[in-house]
Every structure is written in structure tokens, then in C-alpha cells.
Amino acid sequence: MAWRCGFDTVLVGFLVLAGCGDNHGGASAPPPDAFVDAPVAPFPTACTPSLGAEGLPCPRCTWARLPTTDPARPEVGEYVCAPDGHLQVGEACTEASAAGPNYDDCVEDAVCVDGVCKQACDLSEYGLRCDASNACTIESDVFVFNGFALRGVCEPACDPLTQSVALGPRPTACGSPTPDAPTLGCYGNGRNDSEFSCAPVPDGVGLERTDRATPLADASGNAYLNGCSPGFAPFFYEETGATRALCAGFCAALETDNTPAHANNGKGDPNALAKLPTQAMPTVGDGTCDIGKKGSEASSQCRFVWTYLLQSDGTLPYAFEHSPLRDTLGVCIAIDHFTYDANGDMTPDTPYPDCATLPPHSNATPGEFDDASDWGCQKYTNTPHALARRNALGIRAAMEPAQLARHELESGER
Questions:
Q1: N or C: which end of the chain has fewer CB within 10 A?
Q2: Closest Cα partner for 355 from 296, 307, 318?
Q3: What is the pLDDT of residue 136?
Q4: So what's the pLDDT on residue 147?
Q5: C-alpha–C-alpha distance, residues 264 and 4, integer Å
Q6: What is the pTM of this model?
Q7: Which residues are 63's β-sheet partners?
Q8: CA–CA gap between residue 324 and residue 344 (Å, rounded)
Q9: What pLDDT does residue 258 have?
Q10: What residues contact residue 348 under an 8 Å CB cut-off, 6+ apart?
Q11: Rounded CA gap, 246 and 339, in Å?
Q12: Which sign does the torsion angle of CA 349, 11, 188, 276 carry?
């Protein structure tokens, strides 16, 4: 059974890459008594993808699944040395299993996922990257060691608004056979939603987990990244001070401020294409935060997603900064549920503003809360990034390496 990484409902932005042997994604070996018997692999030595096993033969450093003595966790994933693989990316394969075979037969820097060899990718901006038609996606039982993601897998890239893929014979609804009852959806990749790829819609999600609905979660209450209907994701906390994430709709953002040209843009772009879960095709006008579309309340407004992806240094993840979604993709937020600390007394008691009441950014608005750019209502190129990030903190559910459900769900999930 395979799973992919997703949101945590208490902490639903940032993956910490730890537990690695080096900066190339290698993992330290588990304790010697962690395994019932020696693994089947003829080269069971732990290794790192770039370095192999120092002083030992290592034809291929690949991901393996090995048995353990822990009944609650009968198998564990780890990099091990293995013979050279011969199956190319795109070819059918057998996934690794603790029962054997412990590793697949895909070539170096590929891994068997869902019965197909797929390209591996590095999570840094400087390592192995996917091509333009794929997104680097975190799979929670592939390249994940002790809960930390070491690498990703290239999956078909898609548009979260239209739910379409760039390539393939069935581009609508990520290739779902019945687009108005989709079994596949375009979801964030588990790294701040900076890239989007197609993933299954899990049993129990359905078509009604839309804006401000409760996402599907595991037995511990951790929301799955694909725990909402396609086009929606666990994104914001329920309200200021809450620790539970709710689903939020992705929308087509426009700049909003108090100028005549922008004052009516708060709900989003009425001329943009977007697909609702129950519709067969993307439709013009369905990408707004109006009730019954991507929003659910009168106060729902479309704010630019990039605001909530900013890193601590004020930059965006590389993939999103160079994406056409950067200045078009938004997310619906019902602002009546959120307050902020306007006077520095450590008490968030001032209601979130409607951007249509605020001026656009200029030299006359140097403060933290005094123009539309401070609140995610202007394009990335028109915003002082440090101030926008400050106002995004505390309402965006921060991302941990939780799961994104791939196949059937285990008991205890809700």
C-alpha cells in the first residue's frame, strides 16, 4: 500500500529535511536488531544515492522495504545497495516489499510506484529535477525515513484550477474516466503547495468536502493533502487561534484594492476557467469565491496563494516562483473568521480587512497593515514580500510530513 505526503491539521508550511546522512538525501542505517532476518538483497548495506557505500561494491543505491521486529511497523524504508536495474522510466515494474523483493528493478534514480518506474527527484532547488510535464511529489512510503522526506517522485503536473494535465489522452480531471465524479485530482505536492500533481481521490472524500468543510484525516486527526475534493485543499486554520485545518478552494486571483479598476475583484476573476468537482469540464466563472463555487460564505475572498508560500528570507520556492500560477492562483479565505494584532499588544482582536477598502502599495503606505499588498491582494511583483509574509503567519495551516492517501484507507480513518 502506498501513500503520499500531505498536510497535518495542527501544523497543515514547511518540510524539514532531517535524518539524512548527507545533503543528497542519504539516510542513516537503523539499529542492527531492527530486522528479523537479513534482507533478501545481496548488497544490504545502507548507502546514499550520490556516494554509494564507502569502500564497498554498490552497483545501484536504491530504495528498499525491509522487515522489522516491530508489530506496529512491520517494514521500514531505507536506501540499500542493489544490483543494477534494467527497467526504464515508464516501464511496468513490481514495487518493493518487505516480503520480497526488497527493491525494484528500475534503473538508477528511478523507483517503482503504482506498478510503473518513475523518475526520482531531489527536494532542493539544485539537485535532480523533473521535466516540465511533471512535478516533484513527496510519497510518504518512498524516500521517507523516520518521517522525513529524503527525495520525491516525478508525477504528472497539473493545474489545480482546471484540474487538467498538460499531456495525456484524457487531460480533464487528471484523466478520471468520469470527470463529473473524479477518481483523480490535482493536489499540492506536500512542499508548501509549490507544485501540483495528479493523485487519487481517496475513498471517503467524495465531492462535498469543499470550502470550509472538514478534510479527511487519519486516526490521529492529521488531514490528508488530498483529504478535500479536487480543487480544494486543507489550507487555513478554522479561525484565528484554532488548530484545526479546513478545506479551502483554489480560485483565480485578481489584484484587489480601493481603486475603481480593482475594487470589485475580491471574489476573483469571473472570466477564468475552473472545474468544480461535480462538473464534467472547466467552466468560465467557476474560479471565483462566490458561494456554491470555490467559496462558501459571504466574506470569502480570493487571495493570492504566493503570499502563503513565502519562505523566511522573503523568496518563493523555486518551482512556484517560475510557474505561470505565481500571479494567477489564489485561495478562498472567509475573512470574517480571522483577526490580527493591529497595535502590538499581543492580542489579535482586529478583524481582517476587505482589500477593496485598502489602497494599492505605494511609498505613502510603508506600514504593515495599511495597503492591499500587505494582505495577499496584489501580485508578487507589486508587493513588499516581508510584510506580506508576516500577515500570512498564524492562519495558514503549516505543513508537516503527513500523508496524502494514495489507495484504500486503513481502519480508523475518518
A1: N
A2: 307
A3: 86
A4: 67
A5: 39
A6: 0.78
A7: 79
A8: 37
A9: 98
A10: 240, 241, 339, 340, 341, 394
A11: 17
A12: negative
3-state secondary structure 146-172: CCEECCEEEEEEEECCCCEECCCCCCH
- Cell matching residue 66: 525491509
Q: Nearest-CA neighbor of 25 among 201, 145, 198?
A: 145
User: Which residues make beta-bridge pairs with 199?
Assistant: 185
Which of 338, 274, 331, 341 is CA-nearest to residue 308?
Answer: 331
Measured CA to CA, the distance from residue 56 to residue 45 in angstroms comes to 8
pLDDT at 52: 57
3-state secondary structure of 344: coil
Q: Which residue from 305, 317, 327 is spatially nearest to 392, judged by alpha carbons?
A: 305
In the block, residue with C-alpha cell 548527507: 22
| Residues 6 or more apart whose Cβ sits within 8 Å of residue 319 | 135, 136, 194, 195
Instruction: Give the burial class of 7: count Cβ atoms within 10 A of its Cβ; 0-12 exposed, 13-18 middle, 19 or more buried.
Output: buried
By residue count, the chain amounts to: 414
pLDDT (0 to 100) of residue 335: 97
Backbone angles phi, psi at 306, to 5 degrees: -55, -30
Q: Would the CA dihedral through 228, 233, 235, 238 be positive or negative?
A: negative
* pLDDT at residue number 398: 53
Beta-bridge partner residues of 232: 249
Mean pLDDT by 10 residues, the chain (414 residues): 30 28 33 28 54 66 83 77 91 90 92 93 82 82 77 90 82 93 88 77 93 90 89 94 94 98 98 97 98 98 92 82 92 96 92 96 90 92 68 62 43 36
Residue pointed to by grid coordinates 495542527: 10
DSSP string for residues in 29-96: PPPGGG-SS--SSS---B-BTTTBSTTS--SEEEEEEEE-S-TTS-EEEEEEEEPPP-BPTTSB----
Residues 204/409, Cβ–Cβ less than 8 Å: yes
Q: Residue 229 has what pLDDT?
A: 98
Measure the N-to-C terminal CA separation of the chain; round to a whole number of Å.
18
Asked if 89 and 191 touch (Cβ cutoff 8 Å), the reply is: no
